[in-house]
Specification:
The structure holds two protein chains of two kinds.
Chain A lengths: L3 H13 L1 H36 L5 E7 L2 E3 L1 E2 H8 L6 E5 L1 E6 L4 E7 L7 E4 L1 H9 L5 E6 L2 E10 L5 H4 L2 E4 L1 H8 L5 E2 L1 E5 L6 H11 L3 E5 H9 L7 H23 L4 H11 L4 H33 L5 H6 L15 H28 L2 H5 L1
Parallel strand pairs in A: 6-10, 7-9
Antiparallel strand pairs in A: 1-2, 1-12, 1-13, 3-11, 4-12, 5-6, 7-10, 8-9
Helix pairs in contact in A: 1-11, 2-8, 2-9, 2-11, 2-13, 9-13, 11-13
Chain B lengths: L1 H23 L2 H15 L11 H7 L3
Classes of the chains: A alpha+beta, B mainly alpha.
Keywords (chain B): Membrane, Transmembrane, Transmembrane helix
């Protein structure tokens, strides 16, 4: 494709103008690593959540009062259970407990496999309790008095995206701490054996109990797939940072074809270089910079997210109120990386090759002067 | 050419580390752990710990 001599000459020229190319290289690497790191973190969280949602109930029913979450009762459970197509309705008790000393919320979840005196806690909960020297047991304060539970075990670090703020305990303890009566529930979990009926039954539940919110498994999975608000918040700031950095980069690229470089192109033309050779020369130089920067950027992002577990960035995505030693699942979306490649490398090359071509076809005598 | 070969070798080694890490990660084990946790939780909610609700809305869809 390109002669060996041309490639070698292009590399020599690249080193000769290393200051200009180094600037492009650093900016390009920064943009690619920043965008890739965010994509890696969001894909890893989303993949874990979508996987977990597969095991959820077919329909989740929550009650609301004045727009806030409210209790459901046994009558609601029975009326849903009577609907045709529903095979089971399980009442679930869970909720949040405020640990005022540390100013954090713990998510209490009922687990009947645990005894009345035990609890199993997430890693973040353990760290928050440890600060106040709750090493083996913790005291919950409720309207019924103090409830002391022993820490049986800590949940695996691998499931931290789900269990970091969670405390599993016997459902009777959850009821006592959160103030639920025996016939009251925070959620109703509905099982529908025929997947084709889920949509209809969801509508029927809402018609039957107008204050409730019924969410199907499909909707829950869809909400996790679209968890990240790409048009606002953190992403908007990120896009602006990357756009400004990319514009600076493109401006630097154009300057690589003007000024002294214009003279250089003119000299090359006057000693017999064809237009296609000059374009090839510029292409080799800048393709080397672009490909190296892209590969290095993706590599840095991978190491930062999946080996060092994204320090600083993970706090933006997961919150920083509880200590978190998360383990991100390595998920690499090649389609998105390809998209990033196309939208970064092609403009990068175009912004130096097109001006170089324009100079190469212009009157050389004027450029040399 | 020497520079190009050196660059290619550098990236080959760098990406070999990435590939090794990706392949050595216990994807199946993690799926199993997530399944266990999800079954215990019944209804899965992501464990985000933001100071205020607004912080969460800064990163996620409301």
């Amino acid at each position: 494709m390109f002669s060996k001599n041309l490639i070698e000459y292009a590399v020599i020229l690249l080193f000769k103008d290393r200051a200009d190319h180094l600037f492009s290289f650093i900016i390009f690497t920064f943009i690619v690593s920043l965008l890739s790191a965010v994509l890696f973190v969001s894909d890893a969280i989303r993949s874990d959540l979508v996987d977990a949602a597969k095991f959820g109930p077919d329909i989740v029913v929550e009650n609301t009062l004045a727009g806030r979450a409210y209790k459901l009762n046994e009558e609601d459970r029975e009326s849903i259970a009577d609907l045709a197509g529903v095979s089971a309705v399980e009442g679930d008790v869970e909720g949040y407990y405020y640990f005022s000393q540390q100013r954090v919320w713990f998510h209490l979840i009922g687990d009947s496999s645990l005894s009345l005196r035990e609890m199993s806690i997430g890693e973040g909960v353990k760290e928050a309790m440890k600060v106040w020297h709750y090493d083996d047991a913790f005291n919950f304060f409720s309207t019924q008095g103090k409830i002391t539970l022993k820490m049986l075990k800590t949940e695996s670090k691998q499931t931290n995206v789900l269990s970091n703020d969670v405390i599993f305990m016997h459902p009777a303890n959850v009821r006592a701490i959160l103030g639920f009566k025996v016939d009251e529930y925070s959620k109703l979990l509905v099982t529908v054996p025929n997947p084709n009926e889920v949509g209809d039954i969801t509508l029927k539940i809402v018609q039957l109990l107008p204050t409730v919110k019924a969410t199907s498994k499909e909707d829950i999975q869809a909400s996790y797939r679209h968890l990240f608000y790409y048009k606002g918040g953190i992403f908007m700031i990120l896009y602006w940072v990357c756009t400004v950095a990319f514009l600076i980069l493109l401006k630097n690229q154009i300057s690589l074809a003007y000024g002294e470089k214009k003279k250089e192109i003119a000299i090359l033309r006057s000693i017999g270089y064809a237009i296609k050779d000059i374009i090839a020369l510029k292409f080799i130089q800048n393709a080397l910079v672009a490909f190296s920067a892209f590969l290095l950027g993706v590599w840095i992002a991978y190491m930062y997210v999946f080996i060092f577990q994204a320090p600083l960035l993970r706090a933006i995505f997961l919150g920083s109120q509880l200590g978190r030693s998360v383990e991100f699942t390595p998920i690499v979306d090649l389609n998105l990386l390809f998209l990033l490649f196309v939208f970064s490398v092609i403009p990068f090359l175009a912004f130096v090759i097109i001006p170089s071509w324009k100079i190469a076809i212009a009157d050389m005598s004027e450029a040399v002067r | 050419m020497k520079t190009l070969r050196f660059t290619a070798l550098f990236f080959a080694l760098a990406y070999a580390i990435v590939l090794m890490h990706y392949l050595s990660f216990d994807h199946r084990g993690k799926e199993k752990k997530i399944e266990e946790s999800a079954l215990r939780m019944k209804y899965v909610e992501p464990s985000f710990c933001f100071k205020e609700k607004e912080y969460k809305e800064f990163a996620y869809v409301q």
